[in-house]
Amino acid sequence: MTAIRNRRTGSRTAGLGTLTLLLVLTACTPPAPQPSAGSQPPSQSPSATAAASLSATGDADETAPPQPGDKVISSTVTHNWSVPGPTPPFHTDHENPVPIAPPPAAPLPTLYAIGAGQHASDTPPYDQLSFRFAGGFPSYDVEMVPELVNDGSGLPIPMPGTGTILEVTFRGAQSHTADGTASTVTSAPAPAIGYQALTSYAPAGDFEGVLSYGIGVGRPMSTIPETKVRVTEVEKIDQGQHLYVVAIQLDATAWK
Predict the structure, then answer these.
(1) Widest CA span of the chain, in angstroms?
(2) pLDDT for 222
(3) Whole-prediction pTM value?
(4) Where are the chain's structural domains?
(5) Using CB atoms within 10 A as the burial measure, which of 48, 65, 107, 111 is most buried?
């Protein structure tokens, strides 16, 4: 495990979501999965939280067909299409009791799975990397960084084939078992995803409630037009699990 490095924080006004978002989250084309080795809260207005679905649904990046009882409970856009910082980054707070459940359950929201998929027919079209947590939504920051740095060693993590890098930092979260000897991630795509907007991803740290990942974007955000980002939260029952999904969506318009 690695140590925490200092991070910038900021705030960002939450964007609006619609019922259409619930529908498009079921239409991704996922890659073949592989086993994995205080500020502004999200908007909770009626227009930002979609109505619960009672029908079985498959998430955008699901690796198995839905089961009876699977359903979307809510879907919220926490940050609408725009370009994150670094000043300020996208920032979302969630308050969870610690521990969230008594032992042997994990004390923090725990990363259960990672998924990747494409929404080529949406407006705008986008590529998506989703982080599925058990136990609750963690707080998180999403920011543009010049390079991905290992939280413990301070050394850069190579991300070849990327134009720029987004870093997602989850706070009050973990992806390891209680004894620290194993990962809790049950499924994840290969690191080299190979989409045009979403090229790759890599872990950067998991220590003392701070969990971070880098996301490779297919071209520099400093160019015009810039690659916009949207963040969506989905609470759902999936494959019998109660999951809290944070989906990072990259506008793929430039490649269409």
Answers:
(1) 50
(2) 72
(3) 0.78
(4) 19-255
(5) 111
Return the higher-pLDDT residue of 103 and 13. Answer: 103
Q: What confidence tens digit (pLDDT) does each residue in 139-152 have? A: 999 999 999 999 88
pLDDT digits (tens, 9 = 90+) for 61-112: 765 777 888 999 999 999 999 999 888 899 999 999 989 988 888 899 999 9
Q: What are phi and psi of 214, to 5 degrees?
A: -100, 145
Are 74 and 50 in contact by the 8 Å Cβ rule? The answer is: yes
C-alpha triplet 173, 84, 72: angle, nearest 5°: 55
Tokens representing 106 are 């994990």
Q: Using CA atoms, how far apart are residues 187 and 185, in angstroms rounded to an integer?
A: 6
CB 73 within 8 A of CB 51: no
- Own/partner long-range contacts of 185-188 (Cβ < 8 Å, ≥24 apart): 185/36, 185/111, 185/112, 185/113, 185/114, 186/35, 186/36, 186/112, 186/113, 187/33, 187/34, 187/35, 187/36, 187/63, 187/113, 187/114, 187/115, 188/33, 188/34, 188/35, 188/36, 188/113, 188/114, 188/115
